[in-house]
Amino acid sequence: MSYAVITICRNAAATIARSIRSVQAQTVPPAQYIIVDGESTDGTLEVVAELAEGMPSGCDFQVVPQPPPPPGVAGIPNAWNLGLGHIHANIIFLLNADDWLEPDAAETVLAAFAEAPEAGLLTSPIRIVADDRQWLLRPRPLWLFPFLMPVMHPGCFVRRWVYDRVGDFDERYRISADYDFAYRCCRAGIPFHSLSRPLVNMQWGGAARQNLPTARRETLEIARRHCRVPGLPFLAYALRRMLGR
């Protein structure tokens, strides 16, 4: 069983070195590491090139350029899909350019999939890191999908065949394509398996937090598409607005 890591980036020179080094530090090295760059102008590619020499032996390391997406195509899911098109490994990690893995993350994930061969998607808590504090976000029951994203996407590790079955990321969604993908997995009956300890660290203040109105609108649209109870998505939308989430 092999795994691949995809990191998408655009002007991430301040953080991407930490992400790359966390991949290089894995106790089980990846078969592939794909970095998809959306025309960075801040020195991101120079940082990547400097660290490329430290990739483990046998790792297929590639930098894939992302052209400007056409109108109506969102950049983040388009970049993920570009990366997926280069993957031949069995397990796929999506590591954001400002997130980083625990050193034994890959070893733990591969062992968990070996123990649960029926699982298509493995979830773990993630550690949120802010300037002055840290806290954990843990996976929640899947029945909460009509209300919110019950699994944290940075803590999701997915078998290649799951993408073949349910499809890649929907490129109409700027912020919530991960929610749509996970919801489709749930609706398709993909077995989820959860771990109890965090394997990924996430820097506080990602794209969803910075674009809450868009995230709320997209989440409502996605929930309306997939939820079997029509009123629940509107209730969830109202609650998110009231709570500022």
How are the secondary structure elements laid out?
Blueprint lengths: L2 E7 L6 H9 L7 E6 L6 H9 L7 E6 L9 H10 L6 E4 L4 E3 L3 H11 L5 E3 L2 E4 L4 E4 L18 E4 H7 L10 H11 L4 E3 L5 E4 L3 H4 L1 H15 L4 H13 L2
Parallel strand pairs: 1-2, 1-4, 2-3, 6-10, 7-11
Antiparallel strand pairs: 4-9, 5-11, 6-9, 7-8
Give Rg in angstroms.
17 Å
The beta-strand count equals 11
Global outline: globular
Helix content: 25-40%
Tell me the strand order in the biggest sheet.
Answer: 3-2-1-4-9-6-10
CATH H-level superfamily: Spore Coat Polysaccharide Biosynthesis Protein SpsA, Chain A
**Beta-strand content:** 15-25%
Mean pLDDT: 92
CATH fold annotation: Spore Coat Polysaccharide Biosynthesis Protein SpsA, Chain A
| Domain module tally | 1
Query: Structural class, from secondary structure content?
Result: alpha/beta
Largest sheet: 7 strands, mixed
> Helical stretch count?
9
Summarize the structure.
The protein has 245 residues and is α/β, with parallel strands linked by helices. 36% of the residues lie in helices and 20% in strands. It is globular and about 55 Å long.
